[in-house]
Amino acid sequence: MRSTRQYAAQRISQSLTYKQTLYVIRRQQCLALPAPAVYSFRFKSDIVIPPRVKYSAAVSSNVVKSSSLNPSTILNPPTSTLPPPLSLPQRDLDLSALDKSKFYYRTGKAYLSFYKSGIKAIWANYQSLRRLRKQIPSGRSAEQALRDGHLTRGEYHLIRRTRSDVSRIPLFGLVLLICGEFTPFVVLFLGLNGAVPKTCHVPRQVDGAREKLEARRRESFRQGTITGNNLADIGDVTKLPKPILAHVGKSLGMYSSLWDRIGVTPTLFLSWRMRKAIEQIDTDDFAIERDGGIEHLSDEESKIAAEERGLDVLGKPTRDVRTALNQWLDARKQTSIFHLLSTRQSAWPRSTGKVET
């Protein structure tokens, strides 16, 4: 492997400044993770980064535009923030009692291995989170650090998802300890999706959650919402009408459907969650445009980004999802986030952007 001095000399010869060279080295060290099937997640590098190096927004922008660095590495968080592959044994139609017991044993073992890999991924992400905290100036949030150029979009989402997963570990660990290989069935039967870290969501759980969310969103639209330009200039959650607040909360899955059954909207709780969600969406829109564009998002990251903006993804090809995201970014220049979240995609300002796949 080339030494750091040789690598830096090559980068500087390509008209990059010393700070930009350090930025490239830092990104390659922090984001070059193994394939999701491996899940070793160790950062092996002989590159030594000088401490206390600050990266400005201008440096971040210049490095992203450099042809030597793949924009998809900057835009997409590590695959360790997603569920690992789940390989289940195939079941034959005619099985004896002994063969059935062997099949269920192998199935339970596959689930336990899946959860073990997911928890290992959380630990690896937490180690990365501790390193990334050093890049965030004291007293600044992750959103502010991203806008200042201290974080890429991939690093920002690694921080967000890791914090969420770590907070779910205690309750999920208790369920896993009690239920063992029956955990996925207990989670699906009792509806404990909110207690399970994202890295431990089985495929059926992911699809089921998306199906329920999209059905709830369609029902909310059928009930009717306020439309038109009366929301175009609203930029504060406190100014939202209560029906719009409830609709956006349902569309983004911010509160349980149990509240709908009793006919009550948790306004204070919903306003607090929505204020944070709107800030994250606004920050993510900025990061996507700065760090490479929609076309460099991976297929799964495109779906996640669309879900966070209240867009349906089930049964849609990736090209359509990216087209909707481009239309969102184009419409954001003409109206507010609240207007887009409370109206159907067909009512948004027309997009002229094209997607290349």
Explain the overall architecture.
The protein has 357 residues and is an all-alpha fold. 58% of the residues lie in helices and 0% in strands. The chain contains 15 helices and no strands. It starts with a helix and ends in a 16-residue tail after the last helix.
Q: What is the number of helical segments per DSSP (H or I, 4+ residues)?
A: 15
The biggest beta sheet is recorded as:
none
Overall average pLDDT: 78
What is the count of β-strands? 0
Q: Level of helix content?
A: 55-70%
Give the termini separation.
34 Å
Shape: globular
- What is Rg? 22 Å
Order of helices and strands: HHHHHHHHHHHHHHH
Give the helix/strand class. Answer: mainly alpha
Q: Strand fraction band?
A: under 5%
Which parts are unreliable, with pLDDT below 50 for 5 consecutive residues or more?
Answer: 11-22, 29-68, 353-357
